[in-house]
Design brief:
The structure holds two protein chains of two kinds. Chain A is an alpha+beta fold. Chain A has two helices and five strands. Chain B contains eleven helices and 26 strands. In chain B, the strands form seven sheets. Chain B has a five-stranded parallel sheet with strand order 3-2-1-7-19. Chain B has a five-stranded parallel sheet with strand order 9-16-10-11-12. In chain B, helix 1 packs parallel to helix 8. The chains are: A alpha+beta, B alpha/beta.
Chain lengths: ~100, ~425
């Protein structure tokens, strides 16, 4: 089980738990504002963009080429950017804090 | 724009797919404190439609995996869902809707997100075909899967080589079906892409053992107890256990027409998604709207337009300034190929194919009218897609020679005109 904290642009904090699925799916299930997930999780739209807390970056599976390319020119992109639809929930994510990018 | 929103106000939304659901949530975000009621004839909790021909068809997922929003989200935002509820009439004078079950409901604001339905062409004999399917709803996808399970031979004929037909072909091939695509035009995706992309998809499907036949105008269908025979204008005949028709849609404008709204190839709306009735808005696939980038009225069947118009309509309903000004985007996943499209290529004069060194299945097609970029089709190339979208937004001019040179890295500084 991983407990993940989402902080939205308007500073709402939502804590949610799951042991499977994607981080985007968890955010949608908890109605996290700013995670629109327009394409439904197929890495086509960049509307599930989050910034990962620095200490968790190396606990994540590396981004694939399409995700990296989507992020390079996405709005509000940083070195800590990820598309949450591509982040499969693992135990290692327990305690992770994510700032919603948009 | 001086109307005040009160908690007594009622906003009804007809259609709970991408457009309608997004409008409901956007209304709350914009400060609508009154009632929000969403109506849809489909009994399922609103779901994403794009996966129906892709992962949902081939993966055997439950629809819960593809929900637009969780059930709790509607509760949390106090959005009343009326599912399995078909709206049969709108009375704009009395400001009320009537449901098929006879019940009626008044509104202050109404949003029409009625979408479109699959079109079945009037081919003689097709009405008697038992295993005939379209691809528009979760039920369609479920029924195709069921039919496939019932047939040992799994011979599938897909009429129409557009995106829906091709995605369905790829998914059914994954499920072990023997798939043939019949396309009326001389190439696949003829109306929407350059010939280079048509050729790419034809080769992709052929390498996955899908038979692609172009120039095939279906003129008759003959059904026997065991199978259906499809006959083309050139005399060729094809036998199938299952037929999927993907030849386009018809916009659901009937309710709007009966309510005397202005309709021209879709419900006509202004830049704030408002129809000819000031209290009725229309969003998504069913609208004819003005796109300022392309300087013309268009009707678009895509997630982007559904979501963007939903946001515009919600803001306008809440009395805010809102103007639709979006660059369209689309995608299609077939086998392990991702196509991403930004912009509208209609009316292009030149389609430049940018190849990447040493990569056969990663390229992009850049559509121009003189030196104006109109659209980009990107195959396994999110960078080209994102850059294309950026350039479309900013209107920056591209150096075509550099764009075409695979030795020049695809970066703004490298390919923009100095």
């Amino acid at each position: 089980m991983a407990k993940i904290t989402f902080i939205t642009k308007d500073q709402e904090t939502i804590v949610a738990e799951a042991d499977s699925g994607s981080v985007m799916e968890l955010a949608v299930a908890h109605n996290v504002k700013g995670i629109d997930a327009d394409c439904g999780g197929v890495c086509s739209c960049a509307t599930c963009h989050v910034h990962v807390a620095a200490d968790y970056m190396d606990k994540l599976e590396a981004a694939g080429e399409i995700e990296k390319d989507m992020l390079e020119f996405a709005d509000n992109a940083s070195d800590f950017s990820r598309l949450s639809c591509q982040m499969k929930i693992t135990e290692a994510m327990d305690g992770m804090v994510l700032n919603v990018a948009n | 724009m001086s109307e005040s929103i009160s908690s007594e106000s009622i906003c009804l939304i007809i259609g709970a797919s991408h457009a309608g659901v997004n409008a409901a949530f956007a209304l709350r975000k914009e400060g609508w404190t009154g009632s929000i009621q969403l109506y849809d004839a489909d009994p399922l909790l609103p779901y994403h439609r794009p996966p129906l021909s892709k992962a949902y068809l081939s993966g055997g997922d439950e629809i819960e995996k593809h929900l637009l929003k969780s059930a709790q989200s509607y509760e949390k935002e106090q959005i009343d869902l009326h599912l399995g509820a078909k709206v049969s009439a709108i009375d704009p004078k009395e400001k009320k809707i009537t449901l098929a079950n006879g019940r009626s409901q008044v509104y202050d604001k109404l949003v029409m997100a009625t979408g479109a339905r699959a079109f079945i062409p009037p081919i003689p004999g097709i009405e008697k075909t038992t295993h005939l399917f379209t691809m528009r709803t979760a039920e369609d996808s479920i029924q195709i899967r069921k039919a496939l399970d019932q047939h040992e031979q799994k011979r599938v004929l897909i009429i129409g080589g557009g995106y829906i037909g091709l995605e369905t072909a790829a998914s059914l091939r994954k499920l072990g079906a023997e798939v043939t695509v019949l396309e009326r035009e001389e190439r696949l995706l003829a109306r929407v892409t350059a010939p280079e992309l048509s050729q790419f998809f034809q080769a992709l499907h052929q390498s996955n053992e899908v038979q692609i036949l172009t120039g095939k105008n279906v003129v008759a269908a003959k059904t026997t107890p065991s199978h259906t025979e499809i006959i083309c204008a050139d005399g060729s005949r094809y036998i199938a256990d299952i037929i999927v028709v993907g030849v386009g849609i018809r916009v659901n404008t009937e309710l709007a027409a009966e309510a005397d709204l202005v309709i021209e190839n879709g419900i006509r709306v202004d830049s704030a998604a408002r129809t000819s009735d000031q209290d009725i808005y229309a969003i998504g696939d069913c609208t004819l709207h003005y796109n300022p980038h392309y300087k013309r009225f268009i009707r678009l069947e895509c997630v982007q337009n559904a979501v963007d118009q939903a946001k515009i309509a919600a803001a306008a309903i809440c009395g805010k300034e809102a103007t639709y000004d979006s660059i369209p985007w689309f995608w299609s996943d077939q086998y392990d190929v991702k196509l991403q499209i930004t912009g509208l290529s209609t009316g292009y004069q030149e389609a430049l194919v940018r190849k990447e060194e040493g990569e056969a299945v990663r390229f992009s097609i850049w559509y121009f009218r003189e030196d104006e970029l109109l659209a980009v089709d990107a195959i396994n190339h999110a960078r080209a897609y994102m850059l294309g979208m950026k350039f479309l937004k900013t209107g920056q001019k591209i150096d075509k020679t550099k764009l075409l040179d695979p030795k020049v890295e695809l970066k703004p500084a490298n390919i923009l005109q100095q």
